[in-house]
Design a protein that fits this description.
By secondary structure, the protein is of the alpha+beta class. The protein contains 25 helices and ten strands. It has helices at residues 2-14, 16-37, 51-62, 84-95, 130-140, 142-146, 156-159, 167-184, 187-211, 221-249, 254-281, 289-320, 327-332, 341-352, 354-369, 390-402, 424-433, 467-478, 488-522, 526-551, 569-601, 604-633, 639-671, 680-685, 698-701; strands at residues 70-76, 100-103, 107-108, 114-121, 150-154, 410-415, 437-440, 444-445, 451-458, 483-486. The strands form two sheets. Strands 1, 2, 3, 4 and 5 form a five-stranded antiparallel β-sheet that branches. A hairpin with a 5-residue loop joins strand 8 and strand 9. The longest helix has 35 residues, at 488-522. It is elongated.
């Protein structure tokens, strides 16, 4: 592989315009196809085997008028009562809108100051364009707005409207450019990683849009893909660029420096990208469609950024020539400082005193992880939105006028082919007698007479911890065979349980595949095991910080949230897969350099210090860039993306500081030569991957196979 990358890098450096032209054509073709035949984004929250899904399927089959999306129109009078005639006019206009099956009669609050109209659609929310549909709702209720009433919108359709993107991406790109300028002191060197990463990102995101024509792609999937792809894309280009600059400083000509950088750092990029892809593939085991699409769309973007790093970057490096160096370095022929003396001294200090530093770092990480023991995961709803948002104002008006539970009613679907119609009154009575239920509406029977729906209003809001027990009581005590419960609260309950049940299979698969990948890469048992343990530790610490910031509310207001909120159910599973892969990036680049030094010199402790010193500047710059990119997405209005941004930034910051500067030198100094031990049976089976482009003599590589090292 390294030989192939060497030849590819040299060919690209010698004939840069050919490679650049291929990339321009590729981006143009994929973008053109995406614009012409690309599909729309759709969320697929199908939860096979759950009670809420069975209820939804029953309604779709036998009572379609009540199975589609809904929107709520909340009308409030600052003084007096809402005029019923004005409501009737608005209701008539709402019935004329596309895909509207029914509009429930206006429901006044106890004091008459608020009225609630529920608009029901004949299609699911995934088949509606949320923003245009919301605009139609506004137009249909224009008479109420002109009459001076406060009109707000809630329900599935308005809550699926996403704010325009671009701000988070811009923050990350500007921050990355500033960091690269400070690191390299050259506009060309600073701009190249950005250009290459954006090229890969553009091709990948267009590919996601094209993919949406053939399968469901979640609405948040492109944002997540951009967040991860932008961070790793810049980092991958940065690692290759840094190795190229080292080659120029050593006196190599431009094509040779590019070729060697591609054969060494480029191979590390491929392995690092592969670990990210393997981690994202673990989301398939969740069996939740929305997670699966997030995994493969993010993986697609990561793959294109890897491809751009090892094919496009060598071409632009060949075109840039010596301009990737500072002007004064080119003029004076000065040697670039590759090593960081401070990092070397620090690594040597930790290596001489490993136990105190190991215990201190381990204690700190456990302290950061401790809040995660009390983490409560729950999907976000309108109550997590800023108070300026219409869905949040609608939520507050409904809670004030009708009670907290009115924002998350339970929908009981009864199969009348299994339950006699005469049993409906008894079901209603049992529901009304259930603890936590405030009211039960009369049953609605389908036109075919084979299904019925009973609307139940809980006493608790959708995010209240008590709603899970209520759903369980309804299912256990109030429903006969053939009856199931769905609705927002029931779906949230089932979703949280499904994700919790499938977390451990995903964790096991991701850790196992990453361990095998690193074992093949470094021909060691303990090095990949250490990497896996440290990754789990940093991810646990990130979970703890998330719990403190969002659930405890320690930083909620700074992030634009009105109050503390549970950690989104999506986050635990999604963040684990993304973080485990991204965190492995730094481990791959660091261990590659340490292993190279070990093979060359056979000094177990010295190789750690040298490897850390050699990668200190580049990994620090890469981590700063990734943290800046992820923190930029903390400004995203979507709670899932906001929490992902904070969690990823925290984990990367911990990886680049506590893990890399303390735990790695401490543990590797304690393990010594055992870091690179591999049992002979495995040594014979595993392929011998040349991570160093032929830079390590074969006799030095034999050192790892000597029996005395076992």
């Amino acid at each position: 592989m390294s030989r192939l990358l060497y030849r590819l890098g040299k060919a690209a450096a010698l004939r840069p315009w050919r490679f650049i032209a291929v990339w321009l054509v590729l981006i143009g073709v994929v973008a053109g196809l995406a614009g012409t035949v690309g599909g729309a984004l759709h969320d697929n929250y199908t939860l096979s085997g759950t009670g809420s899904q069975r209820a939804t399927d029953l309604l779709e089959e036998r009572f379609p008028a009540l199975s589609g999306a809904d929107a709520r129109v909340v009308v409030h009078a600052e003084s007096g009562k809402v005029d019923q005639a004005a409501l009737a006019t608005a209701s008539g206009e709402l019935r004329k809108l596309p895909h509207v099956s029914t509009v429930d009669p206006p429901q006044p609050s106890a004091d008459g100051a608020t009225a609630l109209m529920t608009v029901r659609y004949s299609v699911p929310v995934t088949e509606l364009e949320p923003k245009p549909t919301l605009d139609l709702l506004r137009g249909a209720t224009g008479n109420l707005d002109r009459a001076g009433y406060q009109v707000e919108f809630g329900g599935q359709v308005p809550e699926n409207v996403t704010a325009p993107g671009g701000v988070a991406e811009a923050i990350g790109i500007v921050a990355a450019l500033v960091i690269l300028l400070l690191a390299f002191g050259s506009v060309v060197a600073a701009g190249l990683p950005l250009v290459v990463a954006l090229a890969g990102l553009g091709a990948g995101v267009s590919g996601v849009t094209l993919l949406a024509a053939f399968t469901d792609v979640a609405t948040t999937a492109p944002t997540l893909a951009i967040m991860v792809g932008l961070g790793v894309g810049i980092d991958y280009a940065l690692f290759i660029l840094t190795r190229h600059r080292e080659g120029l400083a050593a006196g190599l000509d431009v094509p040779e420096a590019v070729a060697r950088a591609n054969a060494t750092a480029g191979l590390s990029v491929i392995f690092a990208g592969s670990t990210v892809l393997l981690a994202l593939c673990g989301l398939v085991l969740s069996r939740v469609p929305v997670f699966m699409t997030m995994g493969f769309t993010t993986g697609l973007v990561v793959a294109t950024t890897v491809l751009s790093a090892v094919t496009l970057l060598p071409a632009v490096l060949g075109l840039a020539g010596g301009r990737v160096l500072r002007r004064r370095d080119r003029a004076a022929g000065a040697t670039i400082k590759v090593e960081s003396p401070r990092v070397r001294r620090w690594a040597e200090h930790v290596g001489r005193h490993p136990w105190p530093w190991l215990l201190a770092a381990f204690t700190l990480m456990l302290a950061l992880a401790a809040p995660a023991l009390g983490m409560r995961t729950w999907p976000s709803d309108a109550s997590s939105e800023p108070t300026s948002n219409t869905v949040r104002q609608a939520y507050d008006l409904v809670e004030e006028g009708y009670g907290a539970g009115a924002n998350g009613p339970l929908v009981v679907a009864v199969d009348l082919t299994k339950t006699d119609r005469s049993a409906l009154p008894g079901i209603g009575e049992r529901l009304a007698a259930t603890q936590g239920v405030t009211s039960v509406a009369p049953p609605q029977v389908s036109p075919g007479g084979d299904a019925a729906v009973i609307m139940v209003t809980p006493a608790y809001g959708p995010q209240d911890e008590r709603v899970t027990g209520l759903v369980d009581r309804v299912r256990a005590d109030a429903l006969p065979p053939g009856a199931e419960v769905t609705g927002l609260t029931a779906v949230y309950t089932d979703l949280s349980r499904v994700l919790s049940d499938r977390l451990w299979p995903v964790i096991g698969a991701v850790v196992a595949t990453s361990f095998i990948m690193l074992m093949i890469m470094f021909r060691s048992l303990l090095a990949p095991l250490k990497a896996a343990v440290m990754n789990l530790l940093s991810i646990s610490a990130a979970y703890g910080v998330l719990t403190a910031v969002f659930q405890w509310g320690w930083g909620a207001s700074l992030l634009g949230l009105p109050h503390s909120v549970p950690v989104s159910s999506f986050i635990v599973l999604l963040m684990f897969a993304v973080l485990f892969g991204v965190s492995m990036d730094y481990e791959v680049f660091l261990l590659s350099r340490i292993r190279e030094e070990w093979q060359l010199h056979g000094d177990a402790r010295g190789s750690v210090a040298t490897g850390l010193a050699a990668t200190g500047r580049v990994i620090t710059s890469a981590a700063l860039i990734m943290v800046a990119v992820f923190l930029g997405f903390a400004a995203d209005p979507g709670l899932v993306i906001k929490q992902m941004g904070v969690g990823l930034a925290v984990a990367v910051a911990l990886d680049a500081t506590i893990v890399r500067l303390v735990l790695v030198p401490a543990t590797m100094s304690l393990l010594g030569r055992a870091n690179w031990w591999l049992p002979r049976p495995l040594a014979r089976i595993l392929p011998d991957v040349d991570m160093h482009g032929g830079a390590v003599p074969a006799v030095a590589a034999e050192r790892e196979r000597e029996p005395s090292h076992a």
